[in-house]
Fold this protein.
Amino acid sequence: MAGYNTRASSYTDGDIINAADSNDEFNQLINAFANTSGHKHDGTAGEGPVIGLIGDPGVATPKNKVVVDDTNNRIGVFVDVSGTTTEQIRFQDGLIVPVTTNDVDIGSSSLKFKDLHLAGAANIAGTVTLSGNVLVSGTLGADLIPDGDNTRDIGSTSAEWKDLYIDGTAYVDAINYDGTAITATAAELNLMDGGTSAGTTAVAGGDGIVTNDAGTMRQTTVDTFDTYLAATTKTLTNKTIDADNNTLSNIEVDNFKAATIILESEGIGSNDNDTTIPTSAAVKDYVDTQITAEDLDIAGDSGTGAIDLDSQSLTIAGTTNEIETSASGQTLTIGLPNNVTIGNNLTVTGDLTVTGDDITMGTNTSGHIMVADGTNFNPVAVSGDVTISSAGAITIANNAVETAMVNANVITGQTAETSVDSSNDLVLLYDNSATALRKMTVANLVSAAGGLTDVVADTTPQLGGNLDVNGNDIVSTSNGNIDILPNGTGVVNLDGNGSSGGVSISDGLVDIRTGTGTRSQVKFYCESSNAHAQTVQPQPHSAGVTNTLTLPAGGNQEIVGTTATQTLTNKTLTTPTIDLSGVTSSGDLPIAAGGTGASTASAARTNLGVAIGSDVQAYDAELAAIAGLTSAADKGIQFTGSGTAATYDLTSAGKALLDDADASAQRTTLGLGTAATQTVGTSANNVVQLDGSARLPAVDGSQLTNLSTGATAGFAVAMAIAL
């Protein structure tokens, strides 16, 4: 056994056993059972065999056991099932598996694990029932299908989902919009979308027409729409009216009824009055005659020009980054290019709206702001105690706000507060969780802070009433003193409750010092009107001594006085000088410590041959406790208290575990794998545990592995909807 491979000492009959001999022997026992260097059971010489079985205590063939199977490289857990030892769980090659499929549960309805943390995939063949919330940070990568047609809801009347985003097709049997059922058919809704499948159904006066009434879709009749048109005067512009085989009535054009039709040969020039209507050929002939050899004069902001209408075209050209033109058919478009450059000033009399992100100036510089100087806006760098970054962050330099910037009334123009309404007065504070400034009443601030916690800022604080510590302590800073200093001739009074309770001083030394040049004193007054006092005071400085007064042991003891007549009982006088003159004795008077010819007990024991430490073992409570035990095979010794000991059963498995040098060796003896050393949590290489409600923790579906494509997020979302 480690630490006890050899005896510390060997004895023969007649040997004197000294205390050191026994101490050495028992030190060997202590070393053997030391938790770090004791018996290892690692299979090496003197350390005992490796323990391969942990089972029912004291049973030769245990039914409940843990077996290390070195043949198959696994650890099996056996349980007594109806009187038969049955292997139920195995630890093998990175797996924790049941011996029989679909036989072992993890937890039960009444005993649940806390959290489950998985870094890989969770393959569940059965139903997943969740009573708590499911938090999913991944995405759904597979179809989400209920366990039956028309059997499961998404949301409810009291717990509705927020927004629904669908990029594909939504197949629904019915639609209810905010409590109102939509009864329109798909074909009817498609007509509202402008379907091109127009029929030839005849329109009757009572047929409905859908209109937009100020944003609300409504239905009216054809007759109602016809009545509206008949009662409303409308102007048709650029419309062609085919009058063939039709009758046009109530056409009112001034001076048109008696109009004369002018042909090409007649010429418009001689018939251009209000009652003539030219043909298109007459108009063309007239125009051709008028524009022949005619020029079109043009004038710009600078310069003029002329265009021969017979042979020349008018070209409207733009300028680079200023104006651009484009022509298509009969349309000439003049506009601004995407990037416009103005050589001089631009004056905007209305509002200037910039839909882009940037306003760029030629002197654009990081950390500048636009500042008006009375005429223009110019980029100016923010400097001094306040600076601004290119990202817009404003920084106030350290110690930039000084006392001189705040007047005596705290804020300029405000009256200093002399009293506080704790229920209605408000203070301004920063809410870190909301990253915003909040207002709070003084009462709520004190309550949220657990009461007044800091009076450091007030160098001369005063109490308006009694200080209630509310069951707490008055403490100082680390290693600091607590001074209570009365003013002037005042004294410090520590007043108890006047009856059974007084002033209690615990956990420490009481130093009574003096600063008056006289010896310190402690006075104890009598019970009647403090009429008498007993004073305890130290020796004067001139004595040059420091004494310790130790009160006598036992109950109801008194300190012996030098002048009082008192009886000493069971007292030991160490190296006293005793004046025996006049001493009388009612019994025998011991002589020289037992009559051994010695003047001391030690010398007397030496003279008797029983010197402690050399002839006999000195009394030791621990040794006495061990001596009182009954030895037996496979028993260990343990101390149950100071000076008390007992034995305990030491099994082969226990011996194998006790001699392991460290925790790693003990895990090997127990057959534990690397999972025994992993930290509990949800991070990488952590062991997952259930929470206080025996639920698995939230699992990021994207971190699950060994699932079919799209199954990770699908599993996570399926759990969320199942709730």
